[in-house]
Amino acid sequence: MRPVLPAAPADRVAAWVRAAPGTHIWLLIIGVTSLVIAGASEGLEHFLLHRTSSNIHELNRHPVTSLLISGFWIEKPSSFLLYAVLFELVHANVERWLGTWRWLLTVGVAHIAATLASQELVLLAIEGHRLPRSMTHVVDIGVSYGLAAAAGLLTYRLPPPWRYLYLAAVLGFFGIPLLSGATFTDFGHAIALTLGLVAWPLTPDAGGAGTADRNATPVRPPPDR
Fold it and tell me: CA torsion, points 211, 212, 217, 223, in degrees to nearest 10?
């Protein structure tokens, strides 16, 4: 039986938040850091954005902390409401579906892998004299890599034909910038999306059990003798 949803709107909101705790804790931290950036002076804002970046300079000095902290900041506080909507539509649905730990594993691996790969691309471009050396201090913060991975995973939550329409839209959204003057961030988004798509074995229906259960002929109990 499906659980009965609370009748009161406040109870429904509370139930939704409890069902995706990781998403809402993450969103709360981003809200706090966005307020810090919004209220900071220009000099402090510059310091915070660069100190919490996972750029080449910070990765060389503080590899673990820079990878972790960079996922809790966004560069423009005015974008917070947009990210809040995307978190509810994408992250919250994926976390409710997969469970917190599998969701966290997917977005965490995608954030780390996409960050390291994109910064390696920047390093190669600097060494090849295609980018200035100042790019070692580029601001590289944000939640978009984890969001791209969750968007890839969400593909498997949707039933056909909506699944294919959604997948085409996601591939177009992340693929068009990659094919038209891609930046290191576009490259990172492509990696994160790919990791989300190949994480299908983590989904509940990976073994086909859900399909088999839905299509199986119900077994009737033997008649009483």
Answer: -130
pLDDT digits (tens, 9 = 90+) for 13-32: 889 999 999 999 999 999 99
Burial class for 175, CB neighbours closer than 10 Å (0-12, 13-18, 19+)? middle
Amino acid symbol at 218? P
At position 53, the amino acid (one-letter code) is S
Rounded to 10 degrees, the C-alpha dihedral 191/197/201/202 comes to 80
DSSP symbol at 91: I
Apex CA 141: angle with CA 148 and CA 105, to 5°? 45
Angle at 218 between CA 217 and CA 219, to 5 degrees: 115
Measure the CA–CA gap between 87 and 108, rounded to whole angstroms: 15
pLDDT band at 182 (very low <50, low <70, confident <90, very high): confident
